[in-house]
Amino acid sequence: MNPPLYIHNVRLVRPGESIAAGSALIRHGRIEELDGPAPEDAALLDGEGRLLSPGLIDLHTHGIGHFLYERSPEDILSASEFLPQFGTTCALPTLYRVFDRGSLGHLARLSVSLDGAPGARFPGFHLEGPFLALPGAGAQCIPGDLALLEDLLSACNGKVLAMSVSPDTPDILPVIERLVENDVVPLITHTRATVEQTCMAIDAGAIHGTHFYDVFPLPQESDRGVRACGAVESLLADPRCSVDFIADGVHVHPMAIRCALAAKGFEKVLLITDSNIGAGLPEGVHDTPWGVTVRVQEGRGARVADVGNPKFGTLAGSALTMDAGIRNLDRWLELPSEQVWAMGTLNVAVLLGLKDLARMSAGAAADLVLWDEDLTARKTWIRGELAFEK
């Protein structure tokens, strides 16, 4: 059995609360004590004044590096080992093209692989669809269907933590209610819903908007010169609701995030990546399983490569990693740093009901990251075991 680990001379990040000098004792995969003395049997690690934070949690990610979660169990396992270098210790593999009854066997095989993830934790899936009103980047759009919903949840062996839906999808309210009954978090997205449709979905239990502002077009203008209100305004105005953003500077302008903070406060604003193949890779052109290549370019994200005009091409998900998102938010927002860290850690854990994670407190899971001054991960621990070292 490994000896306990005593990490000292660090600045402890208590998300949403404080950043202060301290120490952490790790034993049996958990934080046993903060700011106490070093036991005689402990291995000592001098953090040299660096930040020590809870690991980052990504609730909306389709892939990373060369790996696409819904392609195969092997991709899931490989992605789990790839993520800790970006300070990500937990993620929800997000699926969006495997929701017909012919895919149920594939979903079952994917779900079995989650328990074997050797690096970052994968506590469950996020299903982006199929009950969506707008397709976005190829997502399925069908009316609410409780029988299909039950088939999907059953195929995933109870390992679904979140599902994205649209308030303007026909017959969606029974779907939202069934998700809540099954402790699956309904997320609102891909929608042109009216205020009335959105409010009904919120009352049914869909109280979070994912990749906010992206694929949230205004409802059809009915009176020329009068700005229509819809899902965006309804989510911002309701104090029960939270939202998340792809903080890459491409999908949304930083001002949009500031607007949400002004309406919601930092506790109700979350960071996601919506990452896909190409995220975390160097600039260049990368193959995908869709028969196209993706060009990753600084300041432009990940786009379908256009050989004739390499500066353009439609967005192909995101090339963002969670650590880069934290760096962006820390630079863009006039917030105390501990509140920025909460947007990628504690706020996500609270939404998903992951009570053990993202807390810098005695008894919490020892999913921790020691950061260099440039906010890149130096060491990452998951369940108290070293998962990455620079």
| The CATH fourth-level homologous superfamily of the largest domain | Metal-dependent hydrolases
Measured distance between first and last alpha carbons: 24 Å
Roughly what fraction of the amino acids lie in strands?
25-35%
Give the CA-based shape. Answer: globular
Summarize the helices and strands and which ones pair or pack.
Elements (H helix, E strand, L loop, with lengths): L4 E10 L3 E10 L2 E5 L8 E4 L4 E4 L1 E6 L1 E2 L2 E2 L4 H10 L5 E8 L8 H11 L10 E4 L17 H10 L4 E6 L6 H10 L3 E4 L6 H10 L3 E2 L21 H7 L4 E5 L7 H11 L4 E4 L11 E4 L5 E5 L3 E4 L17 H11 L4 H8 L1 H7 L15 E4 L5 E6 L2 E5 L1
Parallel strand pairs: 1-4, 1-5, 6-9, 9-10, 10-11, 11-12, 13-14, 14-15
Antiparallel strand pairs: 1-2, 2-3, 5-19, 7-8, 16-17, 17-18, 19-20, 20-21
Description:
With 390 residues, the chain is an alpha/beta fold. The protein folds into two domains: 5-52 and 374-389, Urease, subunit C, domain 1 (Roll), CATH 2.30.40; 56-355, TIM Barrel (Alpha-Beta Barrel), CATH 3.20.20. Helices cover 24% and strands 27% of the residues. It contains ten helices and 21 strands. The chain has helices spanning 73-82, 104-114, 146-155, 172-181, 195-204, 231-237, 254-264, 322-332, 337-344, 346-352; strands at 5-14, 18-27, 30-34, 43-46, 51-54, 56-61, 63-64, 67-68, 88-95, 125-128, 160-165, 185-188, 208-209, 242-246, 269-272, 284-287, 293-297, 301-304, 368-371, 377-382, 385-389. Strands 1, 2, 3, 4, 5, 19, 20 and 21 form an eight-stranded mixed β-sheet that branches. It has a five-stranded parallel β-sheet with strand order 6-9-10-11-12, with helices on both faces. The chain has a three-stranded parallel β-sheet with strand order 13-14-15. α1 (73-82) runs parallel beside α2, α2 packs across α3 (146-155) and α8 packs antiparallel against α9 (337-344). The longest helix is centred in the N-terminal third of the chain and has 11 residues, at 104-114. The chain is globular. The mean pLDDT is 94.
